[in-house]
Amino acid sequence: MATLTINQERFKTDFEALSKIGATAQGGVNRPAFSPAHIKARDWFRKQALKAGLEVRIDGAGNNSAILHQDKASKTLLLGSHLDSVPDGGRFDGALGVVAGLEVLRTVKETELRLNTHLEVIDFTDEESSLVDYLGSRALAGLLQPEDLRAPMGGRSNFEVGLARSGMKEDEIFTARRDPGSLKGYLELHIEQGPRLEMAGARIGIVSAIVGIRAYHLIFQGKANHAGTTPMETRSDASLGASAFLLAAREITLRDAPDCVENVGNLHFSPGVFNVIPGQVDASLEIRSIDEASLDALETSLLARARIEAERFGLGLEIKAVSRALPVRMDPNAQSALWQATETLGLSPLTIPSGAGHDAQVLAQITSTGMVFVPSAGGVSHAPSELTIWEDCVNGANVLLGAAVRMAGIKNPID
Ligand code: GLV
Ligand code: MN
Ligand code: MN
Any bridge partners for residue 280, and if so which? Predict the structure, then answer.
């Protein structure tokens, strides 16, 4: 049989149509979970799926799926990613994998190839963790707990607004859980979001492992007071502890934890005005590594340092752990299906770890999971200038198709 390939034009038309939903003047998209643009993107996805003659399904966690059923199959191979974006994000992150999955299902449907498992392309809810980190994939995997919804990353009230806007019901979220025995596996095409492929001159990557990610609120507590009349030496300024911690965290990570990265992505000053000494600063800290022991060690030293800096400036400190995603290895069977698919297409893949988080790291805990990466120009992502050249996107979609058919298994025509 000749190597099966997707319809490039249709794939491009779809990708461009989707890129217009929530498009920003800078050339990216702004589609945080449950924003009007995100809801519109999901409507678009379902419409395309119905047009292609696929079954459409929305589960209790809001995950949107398009399904190509196979006769007598009992398991499902999931292909997916996400249609939400970070605020002012790029067009490719998540969207590429969903559009490619849709194109894979359409291609298989058109060839009338009969497979041993159903194929389902799934758009997971809130991959970007705007409200509840990995809400959709964790609910599907049975790894979401009711307490995860009580004080989520994006704040409880924002979560409630999002639920109301999307029409979702909180008590139905847990019905999204799937029996792992019903799944054959999960494959995801994604942009690399870093510079490694480009630096190595590779056009395609097969993911070996995905980083674990831990996030915390470090709340430095001082005393709000008049910025003009309070003597400098008697102030209890929460910004000093937070700032000293920021610089120390970078130094500690560079010196003691070369296989980790840390980021303080936000500082929230209260009350946050010119003429009041900051009474409180909430620092959003995140650490990542593919090694759990390295994360343990870095967590211990960074939190100890935060306590030291708080004490140095006479401040209180409250530490709230807000999320924890485990580092995971990709499944050898899924990796091998991806390898074979790249070789059949004459591509030479590079095996690399993912420094970005993905729904695949949740799915990897319950089913055979693999990811394929395409290069990000200049290693840029989570920014409007995010770009992957179209030929690489097509390669990625064809690898996804080849690996999906391999993992699903072709049914003997006389079965
Ligand atoms: C998801 O994109 C992440 O890595 O934060
Ligand atoms: Mn993504
Ligand atoms: Mn992202």
Answer: 221, 270
Positive or negative: CA dihedral 388, 390, 391, 397: positive
The pair phi, psi for residue 129, each rounded to 5°, is 60, 35
Mutate to test the pocket of ligand 1, among 263, 288, 358 (most ligand atoms within 8 A of CB): 358
The predicted structure's pLDDT at residue 44: 98
Nearest in space to 339 (alpha carbons), one of 371, 374, 299: 371
Contact (Cβ atoms closer than 8 angstroms) between residue 33 and residue 162:
yes
Strand order in the sheet with 280-289: 261-270, 280-289, 212-221, 316-325
CB 237 within 8 A of CB 271: no
Q: How far apart are CA 269 and CA 250, in angstroms?
A: 21
Shortest-distance atom of ligand 1 to CA 381: 2
Q: What is the residue with the minimal CA distance to atom 1 of ligand 1? A: 357
Q: For residues 238 and 234, give the distance between their C-alpha atoms in angstroms, rounded to a whole number.
A: 13
Looking up tokens 């099966």, which residue turns up?
Answer: 4
Nearest ligand to the CA atom of 90? 3
C-alpha 357 – ligand 2 centre gap (Å): 7
| CB crowding 16-48: b at 16 or more within 10 Å, else e | eebbebbbbeeebbbbbbbbebbbbbbebbbeb
Calculate how far, in angstroms, residue 383's C-alpha sits from the geometric centre of ligand 2: 12
Residue 1 pLDDT: 64
148 pLDDT exceeds 80?
A: yes
C-alpha to C-alpha distance for 335 and 353, rounded to whole angstroms? 12
* pLDDT tens sequence across 194-211: 999 999 999 999 999 999
Ligand 1 lined by 357 (C-beta under 6 Å): yes
Q: Kindly state the DSSP code that residue 76 receives in the 8-state scheme.
A: E
pLDDT tens per residue across span 330-360? 999 999 999 999 999 999 999 999 999 999 9
User: What number is the average pLDDT over the span 159-179?
Assistant: 96
- 112 by DSSP, 3-state: which? coil
Q: What is the CA radius of gyration of the chain?
A: 23
Report the alpha-carbon distance of residue 343 to residue 152 in Å, rounded. Answer: 43
CA–CA gap between residue 149 and residue 85 (Å, rounded): 20
Q: Which residues, in sequence order, are CB contacts of 356 under 8 Å at separation 6+?
A: 190, 193, 194, 210, 211, 381
Confidence band of 112 (pLDDT split at 50, 70, 90): confident
Burial class (CB in 10 A: 0-12, 13-18, 19+), 225: middle
